[in-house]
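To the team - iron/sulfur cluster complex, inputs and output below.
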Amino acid sequence: MQFSEKNMADVANKYAENIEGKFYVDDQCIDCDLCRETAPANFKRNDDGGHSFVYKQPTTPEEEALCKEAMEGCPVEAIGPDGDAVLA
Ligand code: SF4
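Output:
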């Protein structure tokens, strides 16, 4: 699989099952498992859809750090940090 360029996650394209809050997974997810391995307390797999989503927002600094690590490690930048931004 090849990706010629990386695109930032877009809150407008986030999956509906993401729990409300800062972090989310958008529809660029390729189901690579990295975020679920990195931050299992926050990311889960949607087995029907074949992608990840945030099922719990981080509640401790440790969880937040792991979510950031997952976001930075995501190969397609499908994880966004701006899910609590106000949408027009
Ligand atoms: S790291 Fe990115 S591409 Fe991989 S499962 Fe998580 S959101 Fe999807």
